[in-house]
Amino acid sequence: MLIARSTDYAIRALKYLAESGEEVAVSELTQKLKIPWPFMRKIMQLLGRGGFVASKKGPGGGFILLKKPEEIYLTELIKLFQGPVCLNECVFKKKVCANKRTCYLSKKLGEIEEYAYLVLSRINLKEIMEGGRNYGKTENN
């Protein structure tokens, strides 16, 4: 699976925060996004450690977005929640193959991985919020 559930939930939470433009409680996120409270709490804590959100503790506390949606890239979230983007493990054995450097299939999977990473690294939260309508466009075109 390229995008894990935790990454998907993080994207949805960040999207909700960006759309609200204000501090949002975890209880509101769980209710609106229909994500279990303990899972959402862990996601928000990790997003805080990653520098994407800030939290305010206590009654009336919640989370607020620290970065603009156009500054939050999908690959950053994948790395935070899943580790490096990796498709290139041997499909024939459970452990990494000793022939990885000379294996034709490994080379082709590496090329696919590089291309997938390149495409994913260009997708930001703003584009996701806009449904991809402006994907690949810059202010100059």
C-alpha Rg, in Å? 18 Å
Q: Measure the end-to-end span.
A: 34 Å
The portion of residues assigned to helices is 40-55%
Largest sheet data: 2 strands, antiparallel
Average predicted confidence as pLDDT: 84
Structural class of the secondary structure composition? mainly alpha
Q: Hey, roughly how much beta strand do the residues contain?
A: 5-15%
**How many strands?**
2
Oligomer: single chain
Note the overall shape.
elongated
Indicate the low-confidence ranges by residue numbers: 134-141
Number of helical stretches of at least 4 residues: 6
Q: What is the N-to-C succession of helices and strands?
A: HHHEEHHH
Strand order of the largest sheet: 1-2
Question: Notable features of this structure?
Answer:
single chain; 141 residues; mainly alpha; two-stranded antiparallel sheet; 6 helices; elongated; disordered C terminus
Report a brief summary of the structure.
With about 140 residues, this protein is mostly helical.
Question: Explain this structure to me?
Answer:
This protein has 141 residues and is mostly helical. Helix content is 49%, strand content 6%. It is built from 6 helices and 2 strands. It has a two-stranded antiparallel ribbon with strand order 1-2. The longest helix is centred in the last third of the chain and has 18 residues, at 104-121. The model is unreliable at 134-141 (pLDDT under 50).
